[in-house]
Amino acid sequence: MHFPLDYHADPARGAISAWTNEMAPLSSAHWLLFDGLSAAAGNRIPTLMIHGPGCARPDNAKDVFERFSGPEELVWIEGEQIDFYDEPQQVDPSVAAIHAWFGKHLSAPGASRKERTAHD
């Protein structure tokens, strides 16, 4: 990566003995070759994107977002990529945005949770 990943090296954050920090080599080709820009143009479902200037490839995130054709919202939060894993300054506003988004897009007007579950 082109930026320090202290999360993966710091035992107080992500470098814990239960996590081996490994990735299957066969998975690399799929995500390295995926063309998210082309795929974004066909997206018509409600989409919430949470990103920021310190995250991986912020200009690409904006390009992908601008190609969506369904209901969408971009929440731009300051912080580094890895901060979104465990830092309250990034996690808390992200969770609040997700909660509001799901409340808006997954709730049927006037339906109780039990009624929605029965029909989903």
Main sheet: strands, sense, barrel: 2 strands, parallel
Order of helices and strands: HHHEHEHHH
> How would you describe the shape?
globular
Instruction: Note poorly predicted spans.
Output: 115-120
Portion in strands: 5-15%
- Describe the oligomeric state of these chains in a short phrase: single chain
The computed structural class is mainly alpha
* Biggest sheet: strand arrangement: 1-2
Query: Cα distance, first to last residue?
Result: 41 Å
Return Rg in Å.
Answer: 18 Å
Q: Kindly state the number of beta strands.
A: 2
SS field, number of helical segments: 7
User: What is the average of the pLDDT values?
Assistant: 83
Q: What percent of the residues sit in helical stretches (DSSP H or I)?
A: 40-55%
How would you describe the overall organization of this protein?
By secondary structure, the chain is mainly α. The chain has a domain at 44-120. The chain has helices at residues 6-9, 28-33, 36-41, 58-67, 83-86, 88-105, 113-119, and strands spanning 47-51, 72-76. Strands 1-2 form a two-stranded parallel sheet.
